[in-house]
Amino acid sequence: MTSKATPAATALHDGHGRRIDYVRLSLTDRCDMRCRYCMAEEMVFLPRAEVLSLEEVAELARRFVARGVTRIRLTGGEPLARRGAVDVAHEIGGLIGHGLDELTLTTNATRLAEHADGLWDAGIRRINVSLDSLDPARFRYVTRQGDLARVLAGIEAARARGFAIKINMVALKGLNDDEIVPMLRWCGERRFDLSLIETMPLGQIDDDRQDRFYPLTEAKTRIEAEHALVPSAQRTGGPARYWQVPDLSVTLGLISPLTRNFCDSCNRIRVSASGQLFMCLGHEDNVDLRAALRSGDDTALDIAIDRALRLKPARHDFDLATPATARHMSVTGG
Ligand code: SAM
Ligand code: SF4
């Protein structure tokens, strides 16, 4: 007997022929920090009634994996600020080896020390941590309320548990650009990788993003004055390009959506905490998956996902002077 998948159950492709096999799921748009490039000091968050239950998030993950998604990242807002985050990680982690290759997490690490064991048991092995400064006062300034000691304790707990750690550092002119080389060395000493990120114009914030924009072309020149960089063939389907830093044993990622645009190989989509499927960080187009999800009908969900994929734009075009979208990265799920 031959079995044939219905069209709606086939792997995900967008209207530009790109295969989509990577989904970022936001567990919440809320956060215990207010990083200046990400959020305004006063934020309006989603009413709790609009947020998907954790069972719904897990159900969505199952459906995406049935549609050929092999990598899922839990993010937010701050994913570990959502009660039950580790439980849903366990649920989704149960799909590893059953279609899912990898479950990962992006976090600000404030709650990482208490959750490191649970996340490991859930099957997560790689964690990205945001860390924009190693100076306590600067760190507090950038995050408005972050406690560097607590974050470093979270990172250390994860390192001790055995996670592979990548530090995400948003490069900010006049704020932390002088810390880029020290951060690279700090990562090398701990066997962490480092990705530098250009600020993206997503949502209104209180600061002027143009004042703080630091092009990564400058960061690269600055690093190369002290450490050799060897281009790496590594690709993740995102906007990052990678270099090896042989004398520090660090893989350096440069995420430069403003100075370079690599949308041609984009393989990812993002689901907000309220179940909106966004095809691009830099576009407003989205499809609400919540109603289809709540209908309990897989076909309705597949149809909604396929409709969304046809909306995936070929590329984004960021202009620092005007936010590309009203929503912040913390809403889409960074
Ligand atoms: N709260 C977690 C964290 O900070 O790692 C996860 C969510 S956060 C939105 C994900 C990543 O997006 C972080 O590395 C953060 O630095 C980055 N980010 C947030 N807003 C950004 C912006 N406007 N431009 C560039 N990166 C941004
Ligand atoms: Fe929170 Fe992450 Fe945004 Fe900072 S970057 S405010 S930690 S969501």
Radius of gyration: 19 Å
What count of domains describes the coordinates? 1
Mean pLDDT: 91
- Can you identify the CATH superfamily? Aldolase class I
Unreliable parts: 1-8
| H/E element sequence | EHEHEHEHHEHEHHEEEEEEHHH
The overall strand count is 12
Q: Spatial order of the strands in the main sheet?
A: 7-8-9-6-5-4-3-2-1-10-11-12
What's the story with the biggest beta sheet? 12 strands, mixed
User: If you consult CATH, what is the topology?
Assistant: TIM Barrel
Distance between the termini: 44 Å
Q: What is bound: which ligands?
A: S-adenosylmethionine, iron/sulfur cluster
Summarize the structure in words:
30% of the residues lie in helices and 17% in strands. The chain has one domain: Aldolase class I (TIM Barrel, Alpha-Beta Barrel). The protein has 334 residues and is α/β, with parallel strands linked by helices. Residues 1-8 have low confidence and may be disordered. It contains eleven helices and twelve strands. The N and C termini lie far apart (44 Å). The protein has a twelve-stranded mixed beta sheet. The site of S-adenosylmethionine has 19 residues, from strand 3, strand 5 and helix 11.
